[in-house]
Amino acid sequence: QITTLINHKDKPKRSDKTLQAIQRVGQAVNLAVARFVTVGEAIADENHELKEEMNVACIEAKRAGETIAQLTDVASLYHPESDSHITIFTDKTGIVKAARLLLSSVTKVLVLADRIVIKQIITSRNKVIATMEQLEKVSTFQEFVQIFSQFGNEMVEFAHLTGDRQNDLKDEKKKARMAASRAVLEKCTMMLLTASKTCLRHPDCESARINKDGVFHQMRLALEQVIEIVTDSRSNGETELASISIYSGIKVFKNKVEGLRENLYFLSKENLSTMLEVILEHTEDFTDSAYTSHEHREHILELSKQAKMELEQLFSVWMQAQNQKTKDLMEDLEVAILKMCQCMNELKRELHSAATSLAADLLKYHTDHMVLKALKITGVEGNLEAIAEYTCKLAEQKEQLVEMCRLLRHVSGTEPLEITCIHAEDTFQVTGPQIISAAETLALHPSSKIAKENLEVFCEAWESQLSDMSTLLREINDVFEGRRGEKRVYLSLPRPGKHNTNLKALKPVKLDTEEQAKIAKLGLELHLLTCEVDSETEKWEDQENKLVQHVQGMSSMAYSMYLFTRGEGLLKTTQDLFHQAEIFATEGTKLASAFHGFADQLHDDGKRLLLSESEKLVPMCQQLQITARTSAQGKSATFTKVDACIQRTRNVMTLLCQLLPLCCRLLRKNRLGNTCLKPAPPWKENRAQTSTNARGTERTAERTDEMLGLKSLENNVTNKTILEQG
């Protein structure tokens, strides 16, 4: 609006309509400033140390807004009594000065408000740490329950403040680090509860104390990282991150090589040689890894050798071109540049293949959680010898997964995904020993219900991280194949000012506690279904199968809707959610046709069953599409629409969970016994043999920790804003 006023062309003829429009804009600016100032003054009243500075900035903003309103008071310009009235037409510099003052004062208010937010987060962190210190020292259950209740409230407040801050961050790298730290704090809150209770129940147990101390240490590190991000502190880790990724090294190297087309003298031969040397040193992480296949290792070594040869050839032509710029030499240089870049692309592709194929095999191999199940069973039996055996196997599994994370980090493709790989590596490094100490405690006290519950919580954290790795692997593959940068291609959401010219202004409203709980529960159910669907698709041998790819795409959309319920992800408003639901429904209708095509290839009684089940998909998707397109006015109607969209999406995902294993089973049957599952990789060792009907392997949805997990989701959506849609 201010830009419109400043850029307004001074025409000799001014219609009443033009004058009224100018006056309306001026009044709107003044009104907006007045509202902004009211908030600023309220913040000043609550924060006395910055009250004076804030009030001065608010007064300046108010004065600038009033000046703009006066200069745009032009509706009565043609009346005789207004001849001496100063307006935007007679004093153009006045409006420019007022605009500058306004922007300057508004910026001051925002900077001061930002300082206050940072202070609030630091104060909240200090409260949490102080209460944690009290929790570490408690000696009775009664005292623990009382202090933990206070700790829970403080963690909720800290989660709200840091969640808002995470959404406000513009730097994707910082946003990813903040998300990782907040995830650690969320999981550790439940771990802290059970680990502390176990320690109180068994005060003389060394493994229980080690288990509890590990959780407290992890939480302190996460809290410190949040403060580092909020205060913009520089850490050594960021420098290391920039230098360790092979992908980023190859990208910079290629840019330098291609820059020779424009300037033959802008870098030295030594610089380029050093850059390639660093990249090839990092490839040793792949060639030295015990989990890299012989074929991948040989290809990487061959391409590394070829890269050195191509660089020598480039140097030769480059030096000649510097001495004599002939047409032939410049053509030779172009060929050398293309060969060098092509070689680096092939190396990049080989490294990606090595890392992702290892990850896919490992995740598939460990998806049954046999070692965790065995630890729970032998712990309840009090079999210390068996516990020792399975803890060794878990330690081996941890090393495999840590190595997988390190290799994936090299090929992650974006800084946020790289940070997610680091977070995953840290999680496996920390959670592995914690599971071992929890299992040892249970083996020493096999009849202890709290020790058993504690082990369950740590095993669940491990399983959750494995599930997250499947999503991370898919995202890394998407980036590599160009299906997304930071966003999936199907998230073609409308953007203000470009496609939304007919939309009404959106009015934010808050969800009440009951609504938050309902949305959080639906979101959790949707998340579990996406995990189940992803697990089913991974069982297919042909991952390029159109049916599988279609389902994976829909699962990704459903996952983004789950993230919406947590106040995270790319869907920021209810409009984004409704748009996503509509696309999901459209893709679901297409998937129904794909199931029919698949059924046509079958030749047994299962064909009829598949057709009857897949036909349910069409009406489900039609209902979702109608719901997403239906207009909703007001908070209640909009919430009902959000609720209906997520419920209908959940119903579709539930049906897919039934259809996928049916399809896979029918495909196996029609191939006359040829399995559609991948064979086990050669590096796998014998699995732990455990009783599948043991009580310790079963979990129910009503467990206390699941309910607490749901509460954490409720906390995440506390600040979720629902926008009314006209």
TrEMBL record:
Segments of this protein annotated with the region Disordered: 681-702
Compartment list: Cytoplasm
GO cellular component: a single term: cytoplasm
Pfam family of the protein (one): Vinculin
Top-level taxon of the source organism: Eukaryota
Gene3D superfamilies in alphabetical order: Alpha-catenin/vinculin-like
KW Nuclease (keyword) present: no
Family, as annotated: Belongs to the vinculin/alpha-catenin family.
Protein name: Alpha-catulin
